[in-house]
Amino acid sequence: LTTQNLGSHLGTVLVPDDYAGPCYSEHAGASAPAITVTTAGPTGDDSYLVVTLPWSFYFYDTYYTQITITTNGIVLFGSRTDSMCCGGTLPNGRAVNSVVAGWADMAAATGGITYGVSPSSSDIFVINLGLTFLGTSTAQVTQVLLYQSGQISINCLNCGAGSGRSRSFGIAGPTGAFSLAYYGNADYTNTMWTYRPVPRVEMKVVPGAALALQPSTGFTAISSPADDATYSVTLPFAFPFYNNTFSYMWIS
Predict the structure, then answer these.
(1) What single-letter DSSP state applies at residue 136?
(2) In the chain, where do the E strands start and end?
(3) What is the mean pLDDT of residues 45-51?
(4) pLDDT in tens, 23-45
(5) Percentage helix, strand, coil, to 5, in the chain?
(6) CA–CA separation, 102 and 166 (whole Å)
(7) What is the pTM of this model?
(8) 51 three-state secondary structure
């Protein structure tokens, strides 16, 4: 896995070295308000349920029409017959093609897990994981949001210290490669991680005639540029790029 830090405005791009599909950029921020969905999911200890999505979801170069929701804090792409007991660190050969939303030894009471299309936006599928650490009353509540565009969000509504137990967060690709997995007993309440697919770009240099320089009239020059320096430039308009809008750019 190659991790390329693009700064606080773009997040981190994660490129699995052994895979030719898309990479994902990760953005961490404050949690969003909970979305209410009402279809009941699996209950009990080490249970799972295969659910059909309302549209095909693109993940690491594969389209999925089904997901498997488990009571151990992990959602798997495709139809699987595994409850994913009982947590683990990433990368992990079992946690391939998955959204890891507080993976640990958990259980779900009746009504704890619900799923469905967001009432306010038909292009968002919501999985609400209201769980407890097995054998305790310590709750963990996360929401997994699957966007029709391929974006994934893990919304930690109540992800406290876990009664001394560790759990994992992140996404895992087809070979177990992961995007900045979080593991431990920290309090992640009111945190949301968003993963956006970023197409891989291959560049090829083709010899050809030199291009004429553009006229410099009206351009602002950087006076006495230093070696290995970075300069902030304000744009004359808002520039959209990968679901973000930028008013300035950095030139190195």
Answers:
(1) S
(2) 2-5, 12-15, 23-30, 39-40, 44-45, 48-59, 62-70, 74-77, 98-103, 106-108, 113-117, 124-133, 139-147, 152-158, 167-172, 182-184, 191-198, 231-241, 244-251
(3) 96
(4) 788 888 888 899 999 999 999 99
(5) 0, 50, 50
(6) 9
(7) 0.73
(8) strand
